[in-house]
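User: AGC-kinase C-terminal domain-containing protein, Ambrosia artemisiifolia:
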Amino acid sequence: MVRDKLKLLQKDPSKRLGNGSMGSHEIKHHKWFKPINWKRLDAREIQPTFRPEVAGNQCITNFDKRWTDMPLLDSPASRPNTSANLFQGIYLCQACSLFLMRNSPLIMVVGIIKSMSLLATPTTCPLTQGIETLLP
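Assistant: Predicted structure for AGC-kinase C-terminal domain-containing protein:
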């Protein structure tokens, strides 16, 4: 019986039980799982044989002491180098914003923004040179 269980422990996922051409039927028809009434299980009509007692979301009484007694280690995130340019290669492109607005349900907003002459230099963004021709 132990040997049969060890056969199920496969490092290669393609050789694992249930991964063949029969899929989950391979598991359901395996000799260990054959006695299970899968329809009743799926309908949640079968009561579990063990139901752990839980005192709340933070309850750890069902875990082994070797895990709960381990010290908690905090690894704080490193702070970014303040001398580095965090936004290098990122452009604030009003033409891009307007193009996206024009192609969204908010077409009227484009006209308002354009009339406010916020589109002063649309060709300053290398990604959208000439995009102003697409705006209304």
